[in-house]
Structure formats: C-alpha cells, structure tokens
Design brief:
Its EC number is 2.3.1.-. The protein contains 1 helix and 26 strands. It is mostly beta strands.
C-alpha cells in the first residue's frame, strides 16, 4: 500500500507542477495578450488572483508575480478607463504570493521592487464625509501611488492612496503607509513613520525625533 501511495503522490505532484506551468500567464500565453504590455520573461503564477482591466496594466521584463496575486484596474471588468495605462510595474520585480494591487487612477512600481507575501497596494479609499450614509456607499477618492526602484515591502504591508515611496526604501512587515518618504528610507509601524534613513556622511542612522511630536501626536494641537 505504501508503494501505491508514494507512486500516487509522485504522480499528483508531477501533474500539479505541469498544471502550474501550463496555467502561468506569460507574454506567449493567451491570457498575456490581453495586457497592454508584458515584457520578456514575465510570469504570473498559477493560480492567479482576480485579474481584470489588463489593457491598462504594463509589466516590465523578467518580473515575477506570485500565485494568487490580484492585479486589477477599475471597479470591475468592462469599464472604460481611458487611453492611458493605470498600473505600471517595472522590470525585474518580484511580487509575493497573495498580494493585491488595486488601481483606479495611477500606481507606479519602479524596477527591481520586491515584496513579501500578502502586500496590499491601492490608490483608492473609502470616505466617511457624510456621517449618515453607509461608508461603503459613499463615493471613494483616488490619489496616485508611486514606489521607487529597488525598494522592498515586507509581508503584509499596506500602501494607501497618495503614498510616494522613494528609491531603495524598506517598508517593514505589517506597516500601514501613507505619505511621502524620501530615497533610502526605512518606514515601520501603524501608521508608518520614518525610523531610519541614509546619509553619505552618516550612513544608515536614526533620524532625530521631531520635537513637535509626542508619542506620534502633534504637540501643537494639545
């Protein structure tokens, strides 16, 4: 029985490996032709997450997208989002499994950006202006997002609308990021704050604490 079980297991693993290879989305596959651009060597692993709005998505050469990653433009399939691309991922990137990149206006991810699993990036968020209308029924707001080349986003990081992350930055796992961070920043926390930066004279160092902040709160409002 053990021999039969081992043989069956090996067969299942070989079959699943073949299915994953056949199901991957590449420039040569039927699914790849729906994208505005898929560069040479791009592979979107099988099984994918929710993918729609492909005609507004550009992915650079040799970028690898993990399994169950969602890439979407717009609220749903079949919406006309205009003549220009909305989601742009540079070459040489690696997007971790289970991540979601949800674009409505503009998301730019530079070259050689790596992410851990389950990262969430979006340029749209719900509003709560009207205290009587359910938040899910209030029209959301968009604000462009950009992530600089060479950056690393740790597992479970959340990048919110309006965020601009510079080149060669580190986003700690689980951070919730909103705002602008210069090149060579390390950001961490909820909400994320600058915890380290790089200066040619000082190397990597902890920046001085803002004297107007107490435990992350603006002292000037006290």
């Amino acid at each position: 029985m053990s021999l039969v079980r081992r043989a069956t297991g090996a067969l299942i693993h070989r079959a699943y490996k073949a299915i994953r290879a056949a199901g991957a989305i590449t420039p040569a596959s039927p699914g790849g032709t729906r994208f505005r651009h898929l560069g040479d060597g791009v592979s979107i692993a099988f099984p994918p997450g929710a993918i729609f709005g492909e005609q507004w998505i550009e992915i650079g050469d040799h970028t690898l997208i993990g399994e169950r990653v969602s890439l979407s433009c717009g609220m749903g399939p079949g919406v006309d989002l205009g003549p220009d691309s909305i989601l742009r991922i540079g070459g040489g990137c690696s997007i971790g499994r289970g991540s979601h990149i949800v674009a409505h206006q503009s998301i730019d991810i530079g070259e050689h950006v790596f992410t851990g699993p389950y990262v969430y990036i979006t340029d749209q968020n719900h509003v709560y202006d009207d205290p009587e209308t359910p938040i899910g029924r209030q029209w959301p707001r968009n604000s462009p997002v950009s992530i600089g080349a060479g950056s690393w986003l740790g597992a479970g990081a959340i990048i919110l609308p309006g965020t601009r992350i510079g080149r060669q930055c580190v986003v700690a796992g689980g951070a919730v990021v909103r705002g602008e961070f210069p090149d060579h920043s390390v950001v961490a926390g909820v909400p994320a704050k600058l915890v380290r930066s790089y200066d040619p004279a000082l190397g990597w160092h902890t920046p001085p604490r803002d004297p107007t902040l107490v435990d992350g709160l603006d002292r000037t409002t006290f």
